[in-house]
Amino acid sequence: MAQTSSALDRLIYLASMRDYNTGLYVHQGLAARYSAEVACEALADCHQECFRELIFLGLKDLTEQLNVYMQSTGTEADDFLRTWRELEPYRVAVPVGTDSLVAQFLFSNLKVALAILEHQNSRVPEPIPVA
């Protein structure tokens, strides 16, 4: 698996490796080296671990991770924030078998983090006084 910098990055990356029709994780390189079953189980475990890490993050750290992730996508901040607010793509990044109350807790925290970033993004910088 590629090295990524944060739990949110890893969560999104691992979720993208899951087949949405079966819930199984697919990684051809790992499957060729070990087996499809072992690869799937290892990726599922990693996905759960990233999710648990995000659940225990404070709001400030979660907001920072979301901001770094947003910047890494190369998407304009306004577009990213609007899309994440309207489509809530983070909902498909939750590992299979996650308790719905725990998932709702993360979704709530992500919505607050999005609101914070939207507020920070909408502020007009104060003019620098000319001497």
Structure description:
- The radius of gyration is 17 Å and the shape is elongated.
- The protein is built from six helices and no strands.
- The protein has helices at residues 7-16, 28-33, 36-55, 59-73, 77-87, 100-122.
- Helix 5 runs antiparallel to helix 6 (100-122).
- The mean pLDDT is 91.
- By secondary structure, the chain is mainly alpha-helical.
- The chain is 65% helix and 0% strand.
Q: How is this fold's topology laid out?
A:
Elements: H1 7-16, H2 28-33, H3 36-55, H4 59-73, H5 77-87, H6 100-122
Helix pairs in contact: 1-3, 4-6, 5-6
Give a quick rundown of the structure.
The protein is built from six helices and no strands. The chain has 131 residues and is mainly alpha-helical.
Largest sheet: none
Taken from the alpha-carbon principal axes, the silhouette is elongated
Task: Return residue spans where pLDDT drops below 50 for at least 5 consecutive residues.
Answer: none
Radius of gyration: 17 Å
Question: Which class do the helix and strand fractions yield?
Answer: mainly alpha
User: What is the rounded distance between the termini?
Assistant: 53 Å
Q: Number of DSSP helices?
A: 6
β-strand percent reads under 5%
What is the tally of beta strands? 0
Helix content: 55-70%
Helix and strand element order: HHHHHH
Provide the residue-averaged pLDDT.
Answer: 91
Give a quick set of tags describing it.
single chain; 131 residues; mainly alpha; 0% strand; elongated
